[in-house]
Amino acid sequence: MSNWITDNKPAAMVAGVGLLLFLGLSATGYIVNSKRSELDKKISIAAKEIKSANAAEITPSRSSNEELEKELNRYAKAVGSLETAYKPFLASSALVPTTPTAFQNELKTFRDSLISSCKKKNILITDTSSWLGFQVYSTQAPSVQAASTLGFELKAINSLVNKLAECGLSKFIKVYRPQLPIETPANNPEESDEADQAPWTPMPLEIAFQGDRESVLKAMNAITGMQDYLFTVNSIRIRNERMMPPPIANPAAAKPAAAQPATGAASLTPADEAAAPAAPAIQQVIKPYMGKEQVFVQVSLNLVHFNQPKAQEPSED
Length: 317
Hints:
Elements: H1 2-7, H2 9-55, H3 62-92, H4 100-120, E1 124-125, H5 127-130, H6 144-165, E2 171-176, E3 200-211, H7 213-224, E4 230-240, H8 282-286, E5 295-306
Parallel strand pairs: 1-2
Antiparallel strand pairs: 2-3, 3-5, 4-5
């Protein structure tokens, strides 16, 4: 081999140069192909991103604006319906300026009217119930700051109890209301930040009454169906005046059927028809199960007062 290279130097040089050129071109092609492959990958990824971006329209667009407008219209309609439903409650929550003496006079007027109404309807009412939960103010006047708020609460409870009196109840057992924070001087600051004030204030109330099943159902519907004042039900306790079920008497022994005639058609007349008048009336048999007994109900409520700008309190002069 070496002899051939020695003898053919020109040809060997040409072959060596050709080999070097081939190797160089191969290496250059490999590098270029690698870069092109990497570039193709980047182009493919970019194409996919552009395609996905085009698939979902960039908001805002005409269609997205139309959908948003529909949602806003539905929201406005719902808010309008809510405002219409709560409008009577908002109107009644407006505090009317009053004096402690005027509040006491109104309390006594409501009490006398309630007692008279219950007497006409044959409804028993306890003394504590007749004061509508404000018995403490039968002998002492409320503070000037609390008079307007208590006036709202008094009107609402009086309206509710008179509605219940129209349901056919037989007795008002209890009307109880705990003191509100405004009734306690220590919990009644002179200045309050209206921005931090809750939009409404719950005023707890408990009412206990007695009646038959029908009147109790009417009373519960009356509580939840008040038109001027909003009452929410926290809990209900119901007890039947009969703690034990009525006894079941032994039914009369069944009488054997009379013998049928030996010949001819069978008689269609019951065998014990003659003894029917002696059997107990059906009304007497089912009377213990007809639900005519009295039912005792105790309802825990919240009277909702929607807070509004404070009314200016009048002077006692």
